[in-house]
C-alpha cells in the first residue's frame, strides 16, 4: 500500500463532484465517482454518486447490479423501491442524516417534492454498478412483446418507436417531475414530445 501511495500525487487522491460534466441542478444530476471517472477507485470495488435533485426533480425508476446505500444531505426526498415480483412497495422520506438501502436489481426511484435543492450521496459496492432505466429498457423490446405485456399502451400514431422517443431522455440522470409540483414552485411547465400547447 505504501508503494502504491507513492505512485499517486495528492491531487490524484482528490475527487471534485462539482467538476463532473454531468453536474447540474436543472433539473438535477447524478455525478459518479467510479473507476472510469476516478481511476484510483479501480481497485476499490466501489462507486460513489452525488445525487442533485432540483425543485420537483426526480430519478426515474431504475436498477443497479449492486447494493445501493443512499444518504440524504439536504432537503426531504421521497424514495420508492420494489425488490422483486410479489414484494411490497417500500416508501421512505429521507431527511438530512437519514439513509436507506436498495438491494441489487431492485427497482427504485427518488423524487424531490419541494421547491428547494435536495442533495444525496449514493454508495454502491461495485466499481461498475451500471444503471438501467426501466421505461427505456421496456421500449427497447420488440413491439409485439411490449404490447402483449401492456396492451393498453396508447401508441403515438400507432408507432412503437415514436412512443419510445417521447420518454424523457436519461440526460444528466435526473428529469423534471410532476406538473402539480412545478406549478406550486412557479416553474415553467414542460411538454412531452408530440404534446401540443394547451393540451
CATH superfamily of the domain at 2-13 and 22-132 and 171-184: Jelly Rolls
The total count of strands amounts to 11
CATH C-level label of the domain at 2-13 and 22-132 and 171-184: Mainly Beta
Portion in beta strands = 25-35%
The largest β sheet comes out as: 6 strands, antiparallel
- How many helices? 5
- What CATH architecture of the domain at 2-13 and 22-132 and 171-184 do you see? Sandwich
InterPro entries: Cupin_1, Germin, RmlC-like_jellyroll, RmlC_Cupin_sf
Family: Belongs to the germin family.
Pfam families: Cupin_1
Subcellular location: Secreted
Short description, anyone?
The protein is α+β, with helices and mostly antiparallel strands and 199 residues long.
Amino acid at each position: 500500500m505504501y508503494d502504491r501511495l507513492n505512485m499517486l500525487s495528492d491531487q490524484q487522491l482528490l475527487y471534485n463532484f462539482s467538476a463532473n460534466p454531468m453536474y447540474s441542478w436543472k433539473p438535477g444530476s447524478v455525478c459518479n465517482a467510479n473507476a472510469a471517472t476516478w481511476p484510483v477507485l479501480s481497485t476499490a470495488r466501489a462507486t460513489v454518486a452525488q445525487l442533485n435533485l432540483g425543485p420537483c426533480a426526480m430519478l426515474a425508476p431504475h436498477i443497479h447490479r449492486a447494493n445501493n446505500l443512499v444518504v440524504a444531505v439536504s432537503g426531504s426526498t421521497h424514495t420508492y423501491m420494489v425488490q422483486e415480483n410479489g414484494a411490497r412497495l417500500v416508501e421512505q422520506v429521507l431527511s438530512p442524516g437519514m439513509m436507506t438501502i436498495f438491494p441489487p436489481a431492485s427497482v427504485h426511484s427518488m423524487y424531490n417534492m419541494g421547491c428547494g435543492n435536495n442533495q444525496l450521496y449514493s454508495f454502491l459496492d461495485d466499481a461498475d454498478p451500471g444503471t438501467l432505466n426501466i421505461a427505456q429498457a421496456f421500449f427497447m423490446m420488440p413491439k409485439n412483446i411490449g404490447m402483449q405485456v401492456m396492451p393498453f399502451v396508447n401508441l403515438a400514431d400507432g408507432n412503437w418507436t415514436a412512443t419510445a422517443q417521447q420518454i424523457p431522455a436519461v440526460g444528466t440522470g435526473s428529469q423534471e417531475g410532476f406538473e402539480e409540483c412545478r406549478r406550486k414552485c412557479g416553474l415553467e411547465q414542460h411538454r412531452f414530445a408530440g404534446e401540443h400547447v394547451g393540451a
